[in-house]
């Protein structure tokens, strides 16, 4: 048996040796042509994969631990190199402070380190939107500068939350930001025990309303003699607020003065004309349009010491102190008879209200382009702007009423009232009174639920 095994083994070994010893021609005949061509082919260099790892099916099977792949690290580096880095703005410096009394824009910007050329550019840009002569304490200048000190933004915060900005870039641009205020309706009640001003102040209502009431009711009520300390005054007014802060001046909407034997009521429209309708015991008494909304009555009709010349002279009208450029409105319907200059009056507009009554508006800074002599105007129409032309110590409106050429007290003359009343007879005056009364009652109920509303 063992002899047979060894014989077989030798035979196999001999066969292998014979195969190895065959000539090349014999090998070519034994190997298929396709395999010979495949063995002679030179493989191409493999392309780098675009995924993190090759597909598992292409990996060689082998025993032992899995091979460690290095290609993902190269792919990660390539991804970082392709992504652009975000731009980082250089830090900017901010500077801000309020303007002090007597300071100019140029002086404040010089303190902020702004170069003279940039200060001039800022003045031109800001001055295009705001009269820099009106700068006053409380206005704020803010500067945002680049690291090299060059200005990027110069801002001016003025009245009523308005901001004017000069933006420095390829060229200087101007931007104006105006806040959108919240309009509140407020109401209150006061007992007049001493003076109208003190009554409003004690009740926490705007004391400036005393001027408006004295102006409108001065011809019918003597606030120094006709009051005995038991009169009731109820007011409703509107306030504009931005982020809780008052913007501008409050505006009266309705007033009711109960004297016991007479009830005077005044209703103002919401159209901004300042035209007020005065009622006595529920009937239209007169209509009055203030020449300047929210102005302070700075000088009344009569003899006074002249503020410029220093001697005692007759003051033939009333003066309303207001900011430069504040609109001036016609106090009654009529026809424009004169536009021009009259000596110490400066720029003047005169309006005829019938055959014997004329109103004069003096010291105006400007007149609307569309206004012309011979044109008809209604009560409340804008006919000019407050100024300081002629003999004036500051911006104000000098307002006169002349009857047959003679000056008369504008706060007591009834002829203008008659002209305005004819214009008011449209049937809506009593409806507006009823609406104003109802609104006042509702506002008082919110402000102080325990207030008795009297005869309203």
From TrEMBL:
GO function terms (MF aspect): metal ion binding; metalloendopeptidase activity
N-terminal signal peptide: 1-18
Cofactor: Zn(2+)
Keywords carried by this UniProt record: Hydrolase, Metal-binding, Metalloprotease, Protease, Signal, Zinc
A Gene Ontology biological process term: proteolysis
PANTHER family: CELL DIVISION PROTEIN YTFB, PEPTIDASE-RELATED
DD-carboxypeptidase/endopeptidase Mpg-like N-terminal domain mapped to chain residues: 97-160
Origin organism lineage: Bacteria, Pseudomonadati, Pseudomonadota, Alphaproteobacteria, Rhodobacterales
Record domain M23ase beta-sheet core: where: 313-410
Name of the protein described by the UniProt record: L-Ala--D-Glu endopeptidase
Listed EC numbers: 3.4.-.-
Keyword RNA-binding in annotation: no
CDD domains reported for this sequence: M23_peptidase
């Amino acid at each position: 048996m063992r002899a047979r095994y060894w014989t077989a083994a030798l035979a196999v070994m001999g066969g292998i040796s014979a195969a190895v010893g065959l000539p090349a021609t014999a090998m070519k005949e034994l190997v298929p042509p396709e395999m010979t061509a495949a063995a002679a082919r030179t493989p191409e260099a493999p392309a780098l994969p675009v995924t993190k790892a090759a597909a598992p099916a292409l990996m060689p099977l082998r025993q032992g631990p899995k091979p460690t792949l290095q290609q993902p690290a190269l792919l990660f580096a390539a991804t970082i190199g392709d992504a652009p880095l975000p731009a980082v703005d250089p830090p900017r410096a901010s500077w801000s402070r309020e303007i002090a009394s007597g300071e100019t824009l140029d002086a404040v910007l010089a303190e902020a380190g702004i170069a003279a050329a940039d200060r001039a550019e800022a003045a031109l840009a800001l001055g295009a939107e705001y009269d820099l002569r009106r700068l006053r304490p409380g206005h704020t200048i803010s500067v945002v500068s680049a690291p090299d000190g060059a200005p990027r933004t110069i801002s001016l915060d003025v009245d009523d939350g308005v901001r004017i900005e000069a933006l420095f870039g390829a060229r200087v641009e101007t931007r104006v930001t105006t806040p959108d205020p919240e309009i509140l309706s407020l109401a209150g009640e006061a007992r007049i025990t001493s003076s109208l001003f003190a009554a409003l102040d004690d009740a926490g209502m705007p004391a400036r309303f005393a001027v408006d009431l004295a102006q409108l009711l001065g011809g019918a009520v003597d606030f120094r003699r006709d009051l005995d300390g038991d009169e009731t005054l109820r007011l409703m007014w509107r306030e504009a607020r931005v982020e809780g802060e008052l913007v501008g001046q409050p505006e009266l909407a309705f007033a009711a003065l109960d004297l016991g034997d007479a009830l005077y009521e005044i209703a103002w429209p919401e159209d901004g004309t300042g035209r007020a309708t005065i009622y006595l015991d529920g009937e239209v008494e007169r209509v009055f349009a203030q020449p300047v909304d929210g102005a302070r009555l700075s000088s009344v009709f009569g003899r006074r010491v002249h503020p410029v010349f220093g001697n005692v002279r007759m003051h033939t009208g009333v003066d309303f102190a207001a900011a430069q450029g504040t609109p001036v409105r016609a106090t009654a319907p009529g026809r424009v008879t004169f536009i021009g200059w009259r000596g110490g009056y400066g720029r003047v507009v005169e309006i005829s209200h019938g055959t014997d009554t004329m109103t004069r508006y003096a010291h105006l800074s400007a007149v609307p382009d569309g206004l012309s002599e011979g044109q008809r105007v209604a009560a409340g129409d804008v006919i000019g702007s407050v100024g300081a032309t002629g003999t004036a110590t500051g911006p104000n409106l000098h307002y006169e009423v002349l009857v047959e050429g003679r000056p008369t007290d504008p706060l007591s003359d009834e002829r203008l009232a008659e002209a305005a009343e004819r214009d008011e007879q449209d049937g809506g005056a009593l409806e507006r009174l009823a609406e104003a009364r109802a609104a006042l009652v509702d506002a008082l109920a919110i402000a102080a639920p325990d207030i008795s509303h009297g005869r309203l």
